[in-house]
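Field notebook, page 312. I keep forgetting to write these up properly, so this time I am using the form the group agreed on. The chain and the ligand, glutamine, are recorded exactly as supplied. Prediction of the bound pose follows.
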Amino acid sequence: MCGLFGVVRNQTCDPTRATIMCVALGQLAEERGKDSAGLAVAISATKKLDRRPVTNRRDVTAGGWRIIKGPGRFRDVWKPAYNSALDAAPVALGHTRWATQGGTTLVNSSPLQVGQLIGTHNGDVDTWPLRSEFSLPRPTGGTDTEVLYQALDQAGGVILPTLDVLESVVGRAALVWTDRRWPQLVMLARTAVSPLSVAVDTEGNLYWASNPGWFRKAARAADVTIAEILMVPEGTLMMIDYSSGSPALVGDRRFTATARAKDDRLAHIVAYRGFSIEDQMADEEVCSHRTLREPQRSRSVSAPLWLSPSGK
Ligand SMILES: NC(=O)CC[C@H](N)C(=O)O
């Protein structure tokens, strides 16, 4: 379980409230992860290709983005001094991590920079189906998130191969990423189980969060009025374009999402952690994934090692 949150701003509005809202979402996202936290903020649109590997630095600027991340809670990582960077950013991608695969090291902390992508992931996926279907380079760190983004990077910024990767994912994944080959787009995707919700405020800023309840709480703190909240259905890829200065949904594609039996069992404990009953029910209405059957255990009973003393 991890927390995703972020904003695509309407750049014609004063950024102050959207910045306060985004930071408040980051603090609320601590309930889904305190191993590490980070925020990637867009500085400028660029097509410049930058082949840097996954970074283990706490504050790095590359290819038009600045990624600030570190161990611990969001409020330990994000200092008020960074808010001016957020004010100037058309987009910010946030993450709080609760590690499921890979140590709690900086190299495994998100947002991750993988090839041309900067990405965040909530969930846990099997890496072997991705490795066997796509020929991926050796990862730098140990998290499943990196393997997932290696496969998405290899899709080359083209829609059909991207949908192919999303359909190959086995496990839980909500994903938000940017691709430098699509410099003014933010991609939001949900495969199975891991929740993702999107909200728009009355000023035209768009936010996302793992838990829709965070929108209501953060909006009170930031004096923002939420106009609409949407639960992203399982098996959805959404593309948000901000080239005109404000967020616009330009694409919405569906695919078949695949979970493991253990993901279904964990849904109530991990995916819906902190959800109100109403939000959980609203999300369950947009859930449709297939579940892989578990490998059958052998039915043969092993012979007893010890005979009972009575000889029976
Ligand atoms: N729990 C999560 O969603 C974290 C994402 C990923 N599985 C990791 O361990 O980094």
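OBSERVATIONS:
- The mean pLDDT is 91.
- The longest strand covers residues 117-125.
FOLLOW-UP: compare against the apo run.
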